[in-house]
Hints:
The chain has 7 helices and 11 strands. The protein has a domain at 2-105 and 157-180: 3-Layer(aba) Sandwich (Rossmann fold). The strands form 3 sheets. Strands 5-2-1-6-7-11-10 form a 7-stranded mixed β-sheet, sandwiched between helices. A hairpin with a 5-residue loop joins strand 3 and strand 4 (53-55). It is α/β, with parallel strands linked by helices. Helix content is 33%, strand content 21%. The chain has helices spanning 13-28, 77-80, 84-90, 105-111, 127-130, 156-169, 171-180, and strands at residues 2-6, 36-41, 45-47, 53-55, 58-59, 68-71, 98-102, 119-120, 136-137, 142-144, 148-151.
Amino acid sequence: MKTAFVIFDKMTALDMVGIYDPLTRLKSMNLMPEFSWEICAPTSIVCDDRGLCFSATSVAESLADYDLLVVPGGFGTRPLQYDKKFIRWLKTAAPVRLKASVCTGSLLLGAAGFLEGKSATTHPAAVEELRSYCSSILDQRVVDEGDVITAGGVTAAIDLGLYLVERVAGKPIRARIAQQMDYLRG
């Protein structure tokens, strides 16, 4: 399974890393050795909304050949949803069978047309902006519409990462990764 983690300037780093960590454990824990990923961006270096910078492993290349697309949120989503060049690049992911976003990343999935006729969720502060892109907004942590999954605000990134682990590898694998991450210890 090949995953594209999309990054962009002024994203929220936790949105990306919160999903990245549980998913990449599929490989690092040898639970799904064929799991692979690229950090995909429109430029080679991307800095989050506080100045933390990331290096892309794939720059402005088509997103069509991935199995999973992951889009974070952050303040950068507001202008990017209207950036024709960025949205044209994101639309290359149309053939990707599973697309996911956390927080305001849903605005980018919506601007690319991936939320048409679907329910979605986002950060509570972006609900009105999301309304024009989807059929309904649900007040849920994770909304699964089959081929598109959206998650709420920033901390929902870890929830989404574990949810995606379960979708691609099953409940027992999710439990092993959650335990290894010390997630929600009772």
